[in-house]
Amino acid sequence: MIIGAGGLGCKWAMQAHSRCPDNSAELLLIDVDKKSFLNANSAHCLQLSLGDEDKGTATLRRMAKYRLRDGIGGFKNLFSTSELVIILSGLGGGTGSGITAELANIAKESDNLIISIVGIPFAEQPFRSTIAKDSLPEINKSSDMCIKLSMERLAWQAKDRNSDWESGSEWIEELVEGLVTTLAKVGKINLDLMDLKSIVGKPGDSTLVVGIGNTDEPEKVVKIAQKSPLYDINVEGAKGCLIQVEGGPDMTLSHLNLVSDEFLSVLDPNCQVILGARSSEEMSGKLRLVAVLSGI
Fold first, then answer.
1. Total domain count for the chain?
2. For residue 57, what pLDDT band results from cuts at 50, 70 and 90?
3. Alpha-carbon distance 90 to 73, whole Å?
4. pLDDT at 56 over 70
5. How far apart are CA 287 and CA 183, in angstroms?
6. Separation CA 274–CA 139 (nearest Å)
7. How far apart are CA 33 and CA 42, in angstroms?
8. Integer CA distances (angstroms), 242 to 1, 67, 237, in order
9. β-strand 240-247 against 113-120: which pairing, if any?
10. Mean per-residue pLDDT of the chain
């Protein structure tokens, strides 16, 4: 199941879900503002009602958690039929910061594996950064893995690709799509939930790296990925790694081995690795590496 928490989280979740195979994942959107549910025809939507209370960011964060418990009852069956729950949220506001950890706790009641993907505010937003920092410990504790993404780095990388970091966050979509697709047994190399649990369970920080380039330049793809973690963290020495390599019909086993071997060379010698691979016509002539690193 894919869950969007708050305005930005809902946007990310809808875009990620639209790329997943049909019927491979449920989509649940939760926000105070019903505008977050526009064009979400295939989604389950929960609008958090705050009544006439103060809707300031600080107050909203405290109240959203309790309103979530009040309204989530009608969606409990979604959690009981899932195995993996991916929560997407932007921290620093009220809703995402207030309900992400609580959502993880609710999902865990049904024995789901929880991966939270959270956006960290720009450095120029000290108030929002403080709210995000305050909410992170509880999210880390409630989630099996919490992948932190710097909005600053997202914006910087998006600028290089001439896209909008907020609505064009392809890398987040690729990560979610990769996880859902491989678990749904659609990829060339598949993984099951126990494989994923073994990677997710590594203690330490986690992050996402992505590299893309031409099929005839696999080493360049790896270098781009190694230099582009979406959080201020050194990925060398990571103890867990989930790699998804995607290419076109021209991608060979040699390309796959070269990319994975080169990328893994800077990680811990005993790093536990899961490798997935997919091909698609739209990736013809290109290679893309998406990796989740844990135990950093």
1. 2
2. very low
3. 24
4. no
5. 21
6. 25
7. 18
8. 19, 35, 14
9. unpaired
10. 84
Q: Which of 165, 184, 234, 237 has its CA nearest to residue 26?
A: 184
Residue 131 sits in the same domain as residue 198: no
Q: Please give the pLDDT value at position 262.
A: 92
201 and 133 fall within a common domain? no
Candidates 53, 146, 25; CA nearest to 96 is: 146
CATH number for 253:
3.30.1330.20
Q: Which domain holds residue 290?
A: 187-294
Q: Position 73: which residue type?
A: G
* CATH number of the structural domain spanning residue 67: 3.40.50.1440
Nearest to 67 by CA among 48, 94, 91, 95: 48
- Average pLDDT value for residue range 194-223: 85
Please tell me the number of Cα atoms within 13 Å of 99 on its side-chain side: 35
Angle at 188 between CA 185 and CA 190, to 5 degrees: 40
Dist. CA 143–CA 93, nearest whole Å: 19
CB 104 within 8 Å of CB 65: no
Tokens, residue 185: 């047994």
**pTM for the model:** 0.84
134-188 tens-digit pLDDT: 999 999 999 998 988 888 877 776 666 666 655 446 778 877 887 787 676 655 5
The answer to the question of residue 176 being in a domain is: no
Given a contact cutoff of 8 angstroms between Cβ atoms, the answer to whether 287 and 215 are in contact is yes
